[in-house]
Specification:
The protein is mainly beta and about 140 residues long. It has one domain. Helices cover about 10% and strands about 35% of the residues. The protein contains two helices and nine strands, in the order ββαββββαβββ. Strands 1, 2, 3, 4, 5, 6, 7, 8 and 9 form a nine-stranded antiparallel β-sheet that branches. A hairpin with a 4-residue loop joins β1 and β2. The termini are far apart.
Length: about 140
């Protein structure tokens, strides 16, 4: 018997869709984004105002404008949330965030692409998709 026509099964999982979710007070990057960048502890956030694009580039914590990002592989259980007010305000300008109903959060999600070098993920705000989700965390106290 010959193995002609057979292909080896790739054991590593594909990273999946890379997404950035922008909300009024925070920005969330899915776990696939952290994985695609190699679970960096720090990233630089770059913007292209003309094209409404946001890029993440892995860096060291010693570099100027480094933002704390991911835990090491295996310890990053879910998405990465960035609450830095300057980043939220700067990136938020590329998105139209509406007021959500009580108990909900309005968001916009932009798809990302890993560049050829495999070291930068670029998100395009122009193609963002809108939605709402239930608010997480503590419920507001009901007076009565």
């Amino acid at each position: 018997m010959t193995l002609q026509g057979f292909e080896e099964v790739a054991i590593t999982k594909p990273t999946g869709n890379l997404t950035m979710t922008v909300m009024a007070s925070r920005i969330r990057f899915n776990k696939a984004t952290a994985s695609a960048l190699g679970y960096p502890a720090y990233v630089k956030v770059l913007i292209n105002e003309k094209n409404k694009q946001v890029a993440l580039q892995a860096c060291t914590g010693r570099e100027a404008n480094a933002v704390k990002f991911s835990k090491p592989e295996g310890k990053q259980a879910s998405s990465v949330t960035v609450n830095n007010e300057t980043l939220v305000d700067t990136i938020g300008k590329f998105f139209t965030l509406k007021q959500a109903a009580e108990g909900e959060v309005f968001y916009q999600t932009a798809a990302g692409e890993l560049d050829e070098s495999g070291k930068v993920v670029v998100f395009n705000a122009a193609n963002a998709v809108s939605g709402t989700m239930k608010q997480r965390g503590r419920k507001k106290a009901i007076k009565g």
